[in-house]
Amino acid sequence: MEPFETTETMEREELRELQLERLRALLPRVRDAVPTYRGRWEEAGVDVDAIAALDDLARLPFTRKADLRDTYPFGLFAVPPEQVARIHGSSGTTGKPTIVGYTGEDLDLFATMVARCLVMAGARPGMKLHNAYGYGLFTGGLGLHGGAERLGMTVVPVSGGMTERQVTLIEDLRPDVICVTPTYALTLCQAFRERGVAPEEISLRYAVLGAEPWTEAMREEIDAGLGVRATNIYGLSEIIGPGVSGECVEARHGSHLNEDHFLAEIVDPETGAPLGPGEEGVLVITTLTKQALPLVRYWTGDITSLDETPCACGRTLARMATIAGRTDDMLIVRGVNVYPTQVATLLGEVAGLTSNYRLVLRRGATMDEVEVEVEAREGTDRHTQDMASHLARLIKETIGCSMTVAVLDPGALPRSDGGKVVRVLDQRGEPTALADQA
Ligand code: ADP
Ligand code: ZN
């Protein structure tokens, strides 16, 4: 392994010292620059100059997406407007988009974090990158672009969409690495198949996939379909964008969190109480070094757990498990809490289905109903009815509630063209107890 930076392999004790030192510089700066934080901390009765240990952080209140919306667009910024070098926005998956900003120094950090994740994924200087993440306000396109340039790669800034052109460019330019959302990677697999191009003829060796949840079954399909080793990259615009964590190609078992810049906590989704390594809860992040929009105890809403045990790649940065769901997406179906990703994970166990799916919420006669729409795989010899009852049984046994399953024809469900796919279609009109959009 050749890490991009030495902090990736620091002793954990030393890392914690660095985090504390950075935290102690951050908190007074945020207090002095951002009235919202100052007011809240006063209200909570916490003197941030007295924070002497990482555990003391738990005395401070969480920052939530609503705080960014309430102070939209620039209320939580900690630098004067003329120091902001770039603006990005969230994709707006869960409501009105939020705006985030970067100083020149922040852009530098962003590029360095992404470069790290690219190295983890197998990319090296001199390799060619096909960047199929959307460019624009979305952090994916420009984020990967900056990181790849920082690493010294040749970047092809394709952006999303126009699948035929994507395929032609990959055939002609012969890139080594592709960055793309996992669902669009599947669309590309299919496009190559339809063109009669075999995976071993495709130049790509590594795929860096993120921006939305994906499963091991999808990984197998993408590895095989594009002839790559696919790894995960995770992030959110509020924290910086992609580059918060990334999976190493050596282990492909959890995404290394860039903890020297992003201090992570896992907390109980209901009570907010801190949880230990291995325990599943909400990921809460404090940006230790960001300038324009530092966030303290930001509630990502993403459910995961942390693994601090040593990794085969030699990095000491803790590894984040696959996102099990997002608190905003949680549905309550007949009293059972369900994340759409739980259904996604089961699709790989039913032979003959693709990994594409959608949950449709409808009003039933006595209670609300969830129908899972899935697709039959091209050329499968299993009966639609068999596959439907197989999946319905798995859902009942593992998730604990009943959903009806509709197996559609191959290609019937909408596909991603580089952005995030909508997995839940709510056809109920007025909200009810079924979907608790907290
Ligand atoms: P929005 O909140 O509008 O979707 P972002 O574009 O910043 O805005 O998306 C960040 C969110 O996307 C994360 O909080 C997470 O829920 C999801 N996400 C990003 N990368 C991954 C990934 N690799 N795996 C699972 N979910 C991811
Ligand atoms: Zn590793």
3D architecture notes:
With 438 residues, the protein is of the alpha/beta class. It has 2 domains: 1-326, 3-Layer(aba) Sandwich (Rossmann fold), CATH 3.40.50.12780; 331-426, GMP Synthetase, Chain A, domain 3 (2-Layer Sandwich). The protein has helices spanning 12-33, 35-43, 65-70, 104-120, 139-151, 163-173, 182-194, 216-226, 340-347, 384-398, and strands at residues 86-89, 99-102, 128-131, 154-156, 177-180, 206-210, 229-236, 241-247, 255-257, 262-267, 281-287, 298-304, 306-307, 319-320, 325-326, 331-333, 336-338, 353-363, 368-376, 404-408, 424-426. A 9-stranded mixed beta sheet has the order 4-3-5-6-7-8-9-14-13. A 4-stranded antiparallel beta sheet has the order 10-11-12-15. Strands 20-19-18-21 form a 4-stranded mixed beta sheet. Strand 5, helix 7 and strand 6 (206-210) form a beta-alpha-beta unit. Helix 1 (12-33) crosses helix 2 (35-43), helix 6 (163-173) packs across helix 7 and helix 7 (182-194) runs parallel beside helix 8. The chain starts with 11 loop residues before the first helix and ends in a 12-residue tail after the last strand. The model has no long low-confidence stretch (mean pLDDT 94). It binds adenosine-5'-diphosphate and zinc ion. Zinc ion binds next to loops.
